Amino acid sequence: MEKYKYYFRKPRSEITKDILTLLLISGGIAIAATSPYFGIAIWKNLKNRNKYPKRRVSSKFCELRKRGFIILEKDAHDIKLALTPKGEKIAGYMQINKMKIQRPKKWDSLWRVLTFDISNLKTTQRNAIRKLLKEIGFQCLQKSVWVHAFDCKAEIEIINDFFGLKENEMRLIVAKDIGDSRELKRKFRLS
């Protein structure tokens, strides 16, 4: 799994989300400079292109450019449209909805035990981490002790990076035996 950051803050409008997603996926698009409708040309490649009026799409591209989320680079007869680092940061939050821990064909009989100890000053972070862990399939053993049956090291690194946690605040332990695990095996559908 490629390492990248996840962000929770969402753009206010769906059109902004769709445009940023398109640019994030494409990594930048080259468009003929002779066309004044560069935003509309890009939009034709998106599956939801009939969702918004062309004028609104064009004005949203201009707004995103003014806010510093996208950049136009002119090169001879081409214009390259790409996300700026600021735009990548805003668009990156959308990846959190897609984060999943892959289920292998055969379970390696190891448990991934995640412990975290986050101070009371970071209550919002702690609650967000708990919610995220539930969404990606972790099971709670205790308040700050979670377990998963499959390899999730890359996902935990992403969570650590996003929340800016230190090694002593969140640890992933790989264990062979965690005691009575019948209920966990049932929840993870393991034999």
TrEMBL record:
Q: Which residues form the Transcriptional repressor PaaX-like central Cas2-like domain?
A: 105-177
Keyword Thylakoid carried by entry: no
The question of whether Transmembrane is a record keyword is answered with yes
Give the stretches traversing the membrane: 20-43
Keyword annotations for this protein, in alphabetical order, are:
Membrane, Transmembrane, Transmembrane helix
Top-level lineage group: Bacteria
> Secretion signal: which residues?
none
- One of its Pfam families is PaaX_M
- What protein is this chain from? Transcriptional repressor PaaX-like central Cas2-like domain-containing protein
Q: Could you tell me which species this protein originates from?
A: Candidatus Nealsonbacteria bacterium RIFCSPHIGHO2_01_FULL_43_31
